């Protein structure tokens, strides 16, 4: 059975059957079929150089997902990057902001402008799925399922998953990301990632 593991630092470990094609990782991102998470989407907003006051309002704001979604939709004129996002991406970004804003590090717009937002922003549900879920099974087991948040949290709280180092809020963020972006049809999954089945 093949396996692929990835770390947030970008290191890619390919093992098992995938070794038959060692150039695979260089040819394409095998995880590109998994929808981007809120960290990446927010980094794109930051990289578009929105007005400092708008960025500051996001970094210091505290809203529910629905409130963030309404807020983002109202700001598309001042932050054109938001217009490029699909409805699903806007919802994913709103969800991410509801878990991570206000930014606890206290970083402001100038700090983010000087740094690489992708590296300084908190991880998102996609990051957690790739970093944590593949320690025991292939990512396909996770990303192809359609389950509600309570079901995901129930699985994460089982003894076999309780040892995974994620806080309660991080588990909730992961579950929420999977509800919004999971249920990927098996036909959309690269063949090299289909081994191992798609259920718990």
SSE succession: EEHHHHHHHHHHHH
- Overall shape: it is globular
Tell me the span between the first and last alpha carbons. Answer: 16 Å
Structural class: mainly alpha
- Number of continuous helical runs: 12
- Overall number of strands: 2
Helical residue percent band: 40-55%
Strand content: under 5%
Order of adjacent strands in the largest pleated sheet: 1-2
Structure description:
- This protein is mostly helical.
- Helix content is 47%, strand content 4%.
- It is built from twelve helices and two strands; from the N terminus they run ββαααααααααααα.
- It has helices at 24-27, 38-47, 52-59, 65-74, 87-100, 109-114, 117-120, 125-132, 140-143, 149-156, 159-162, 168-181, and strands at 3-6, 12-15.
- It has a two-stranded antiparallel ribbon.
- Helix 2 packs across helix 5, helix 4 crosses helix 5 and helix 10 packs across helix 12.
- It starts with a strand and ends in a 19-residue tail after the last helix.
Q: What's the topology here?
A:
Layout: E1 3-6, E2 12-15, H1 24-27, H2 38-47, H3 52-59, H4 65-74, H5 87-100, H6 109-114, H7 117-120, H8 125-132, H9 140-143, H10 149-156, H11 159-162, H12 168-181
Antiparallel strand pairs: 1-2
Helix pairs in contact: 2-5, 4-5, 5-12, 8-12, 10-12
């Amino acid at each position: 059975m093949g396996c692929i593991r990835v770390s947030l630092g970008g290191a890619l470990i390919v093992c098992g059957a995938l070794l038959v094609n060692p150039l695979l990782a260089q040819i394409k991102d095998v995880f590109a079929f998994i929808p981007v998470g809120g960290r990446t989407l927010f980094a794109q907003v930051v990289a578009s150089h929105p007005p400092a006051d708008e960025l500051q309002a996001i970094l210091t704001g505290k809203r529910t997902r629905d409130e963030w979604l309404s807020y983002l939709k109202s700001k598309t004129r001042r932050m054109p990057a938001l217009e490029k996002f699909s409805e699903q991406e806007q919802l994913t970004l709103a969800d991410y902001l509801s878990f991570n804003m206000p930014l606890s590090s206290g970083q402001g717009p100038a700090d983010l402008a000087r740094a690489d937002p992708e590296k300084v922003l908190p991880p998102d549900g996609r990051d957690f799925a790739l970093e944590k879920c593949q320690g025991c099974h292939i990512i396909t087991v996770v990303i192809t399922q359609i389950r509600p948040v309570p079901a995901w949290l129930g699985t994460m709280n089982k003894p076999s998953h309780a040892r995974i180092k994620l806080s309660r809020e991080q588990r909730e963020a992961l579950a929420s990301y999977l509800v919004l972006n999971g249920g990927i049809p098996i036909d959309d999954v690269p063949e090299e990632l289909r081994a191992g089945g798609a259920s718990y």
